[in-house]
Design a protein that fits this description.
Length: about 120
């Protein structure tokens, strides 16, 4: 059942974002920022944790999950390091994920040839 919940929740998030892209004039970058900020706000008010427990990877993989990771990192760093934690907490918490994305993208560039759209 965990796989089914992850699938339909992740699919619903993607479908809602697609509707938002089609029905509004928001640029994709702004929608991505909206998702990251929404994940951070949902984490701050305590709604994201139960949502993630229910949906698993369906909630943690999309950009909402990245915003929540940033929020948790900042929260923990502020508790341990004080004011300076505001600036370093998000970087510390998300470093592994960002590094993995960069490394895998670089490796993929060896196997695939990108082309410009016409």
């Amino acid at each position: 059942m965990d796989y089914i919940n992850a699938f339909w929740v992740g699919g619903l998030i993607c479908a809602l974002v697609q509707i938002l892209m089609e029905k509004t004039k928001l640029m994709p970058g702004r929608i991505m920022v909206l998702l990251v900020c929404s994940g951070a706000v949902l984490g701050a008010v305590g709604l994201y944790e139960p949502f993630q427990e229910y949906a698993g990877a369906g909630a943690s993989v999309p950009l909402l999950g990245f915003g929540n990771v940033l929020w948790k990192g900042v929260k923990e760093a502020v508790i341990t390091d004080g004011f300076i934690g505001l600036f370093k907490g998000g970087f510390t918490a998300s470093a592994a994920g960002i590094s993995a994305a960069l490394i895998f993208a670089y490796l993929a560039s060896f196997f695939f040839d990108s082309k410009m759209k016409k």
